[in-house]
Write a structure and sequence with these properties.
alpha+beta, 3 domains, five-stranded antiparallel sheet, four-stranded antiparallel sheet, 44% helix, FliD_C, secreted, coiled coil
């Protein structure tokens, strides 16, 4: 049987147009699936946004769940003589510090050389430059034959743990190799070298006998009248747990006290993170009665469960010993409706400052407790972990939406394959119809011609 390459040629019917219309109508069956996939994708995105806000709140809660936060100390310094930093074992108190002199490094300058290009090391053998120190072993540096003053400098600087830093300076008349101790203090001072013994003596033009050395010195200071010396300007141990960095000669007062600022910032961050989480929830569950616009998670049961669980922990408080804090309200934090009728945390600044200043031990027991989940912050962190887990309200809702997307995509593929098969069947049927009509038209034309011929013959007779 003959085939028709283009639908409609044989029959004269717009079969291609009809097939396109049928294809469009069949593909309309995919639109509901596409809308369902889009709806679930919007939900997954919304759950991700909620998950991020929950994670930020958990991070803020974890900061309060660290008992060391409430025992941290800070230093304040009046005067420019020193800077100070307190460690975890510092002792609270006030200390008068007087810096008499700073620790300095020792220096040494060699004899003067007229020309930088002069080869100072004669012969063909490597020579040894020995550097001597006041309170430590000497250091040997190999110097190659033919070395200039700059080559000697480079060899010293290339020597690991040489204890000195070398440079070349011009003093107005010639060039000198200068050495500076890398450490401060009297014992680290470089006291001399055998430079004059290993170089070509005829090239050394300095009339000053020997080398020019300047002794390094130890720092000298007093802490509350007690005399202290230090080889370094960074002094540890003069005040328990405090590192002093000596800046200049003079007097300073160092105060070591409870670090109320760090605790205040952690609590404020906790309140801000919860209120930000609440803003995210309000946005995702909003409804505008005038425009009809709705949040992506309006009426979502997972969101209601999350709010309920968190509110329960926040308002439930913790078990407290006598004189301790049991509820957020005890430290000046309360759940209140804001101007948009949203339940958020609010701080009584005066009360919170009083608690932070006077009772950080009780504050630590309230937020951090005596175990990882014993305090309010630990309970909140554990609750968020449960909510975000695979079996939690948020984790389950998110994974459920993701699974529905995968299922809908598979359904979409199956539907698309079915539509393609249907259209292919229509195309075959239309091709057969086109061929059949074409054959019928040919038969009709043939019969018409035969009848015309018969009529013509009858007319002649």
């Amino acid at each position: 049987m003959a085939t028709i390459q283009s639908l409609g040629i044989g029959s004269g019917l717009d079969l291609n147009g009809l097939l396109k219309d049928l294809d469009k109508a069949e593909r309309g069956k995919l639109e509901p699936i596409e809308r369902q996939i889009e709806t679930q994708q919007v939900k997954v995105s919304a759950y991700g946004k909620l998950e991020g806000a929950l994670s930020a709140f958990q991070t803020a809660a974890n900061a309060l769940n660290d008992a060391s936060l409430y025992q941290s100390l800070s230093t304040s310094v009046s005067g420019d003589a020193v800077q100070a930093a307190a460690g975890s074992d510092a002792a609270k108190g006030q200390y008068a510090v007087t810096v008499h002199n700073l620790a300095t490094a020792g220096t040494l300058a060699t004899a003067r050389i007229d020309n930088l290009d002069d080869e100072l090391i004669d012969g063909s053998e490597t020579k040894t430059l020995t550097l001597n120190f006041a309170g430590q072993d000497s250091v040997d540096v190999d110097i190659e034959p033919g070395s200039t003053l700059e080559d000697i400098r480079d060899a010293i600087n290339a020597k690991e743990d040489s204890g000195v830093s070398a440079s070349v300076i011009y003093d107005g008349e010639g060039y000198r190799l200068t050495l500076s101790s890398t450490e401060t203090g009297a014992d680290a001072s470089i006291t001399g070298s055998n430079f004059a013994d290993i170089v070509n003596a005829t090239l050394a033009t300095d009339e000053v006998a020997g080398e020019i050395a300047q002794q390094g010195q130890d720092a000298s200071l007093e802490v509350n009248g007690i005399r202290i010396t230090s080889a370094s300007n960074q002094v540890e141990g003069a005040i328990q747990g405090v590192t002093l960095n000596l800046a200049e000669e003079g007097s300073s007062t160092v105060k070591v006290e409870q670090d109320t600022r760090a605790v205040r910032e952690a609590i404020t961050g906790f309140v801000d993170a919860f209120n930000s989480l609440k803003d995210t929830i309000d946005e995702l569950t909003s409804f505008n009665s005038e425009s009809g616009a709705a949040g992506d998670l309006l009426g979502d049961s997972a969101v209601r469960s999350i709010e309920s669980r968190l509110r329960s922990v926040l308002s439930g408080g913790v078990a407290a010993e006598e004189g301790g804090f049991a509820m957020l309200g005890d430290i000046g934090i309360s759940l209140k409706l804001d101007s948009k009728n949203s339940l958020k945390l609010e701080i009584d600044e005066e009360r919170l400052d009083e608690v932070i200043l006077n009772d950080q031990d009780a504050l630590s027991a309230f937020f951090a407790g005596d175990s990882t989940t014993g305090g309010l912050a630990g309970q909140l962190s554990e609750t968020i972990t449960q909510l975000s887990g695979s079996n939690g309200a948020l984790g389950g809702a998110k994974s459920g939406a993701e699974n529905r997307i995968e299922s809908l995509k598979e359904r979409y593929v199956r539907m698309e394959q079915s539509i393609e098969a249907t259209i292919a069947r229509y195309r075959t049927q239309f091709g057969q119809l086109d061929l059949m009509i074409a054959q019928m038209n040919q038969t009709s034309d043939y019969l018409f011609q035969q009848f015309e011929m018969m009529n013509a013959q009858l007319g002649r007779n």
